[in-house]
Write a structure and sequence with these properties.
Length: about 210
């Protein structure tokens, strides 16, 4: 019983650590947060922290895995409550904008310096690629997306554009969020039929009205 309680407490502490670290990394950047900061924020010793995570990269990996788990839960809930694939995409787009709005651009710049994290992200991207393409093709069946689009190509191009954004000179003129919104909306508009564009326009009218 005592051993079970210790394991339970350790699991709870690990979850709290990941939650605190996720928020700190996203808002202050990865370099702007030390393991000392994390330990202090939790009210624990640095030794206890290192017993759970051997270094900052391992903690960062745990944060990325937890974020992906939360994202999967959100997407599954959206899919179950939506009437078509475009509605799912637009709800996920709205969620991503909310996340990027709170995020410090330094987080996206600095994450590239952690090879194990990059490997994890690349692996996840590859696993999701086929699912995303089949999702777009379902949109074709629903009459929302154009049938003449090579979704494997445009899907890769979309991700490459977003990745290149991080080191782009465009940031000297516009914010990451402004450019991100433009890329995604142009992409969705470009693959949509007239029916899809109508849904997109209605979404934007409502979305922009709430943003004012």
């Amino acid at each position: 019983m005592i051993m079970y309680e210790k394991e339970n407490n350790r699991t709870e502490l690990k979850h709290k650590t990941v939650t605190l670290a996720m928020n700190a990394f996203a808002t202050k950047g990865i370099k702007g947060v030390t393991m000392d900061d994390i330990a202090m924020g939790l009210g624990i010793s640095k030794r206890t922290l290192y017993e759970m995570f051997e270094d900052k990269e391992e903690l960062l990996i745990a944060c990325m895995l937890e974020h992906q788990r939360e994202k999967n839960v959100f997407v599954n809930e959206v899919i179950s409550s939506s009437v078509n694939v475009l509605e799912v995409i637009l709800k996920c787009y709205k969620k991503s904008v909310e996340e990027y709005h709170k995020m410090n651009i330094r987080f996206l710049e600095e994450i590239k310096k952690y090879p194990r994290v990059c490997e994890l992200m690349d692996d996840h991207k590859k696993k999701n690629s086929n699912y995303a393409i089949s999702f777009f093709r379902k949109g074709v069946e629903q009459g929302l997306f154009r049938a003449d689009i090579k979704f494997d190509i445009v899907h890769d191009l979309l991700h490459e554009q977003i990745d290149m954004l991080i080191h782009s000179e465009t940031f000297k003129k516009y914010s990451f969020l402004e450019v991100y919104e433009s890329i995604v909306l142009i992409f969705v508009r470009g693959i949509s039929t007239d029916k899809g564009i109508e849904i997109l326009e209605n979404f934007l009218i409502e979305y922009n009205a709430k943003s004012v």
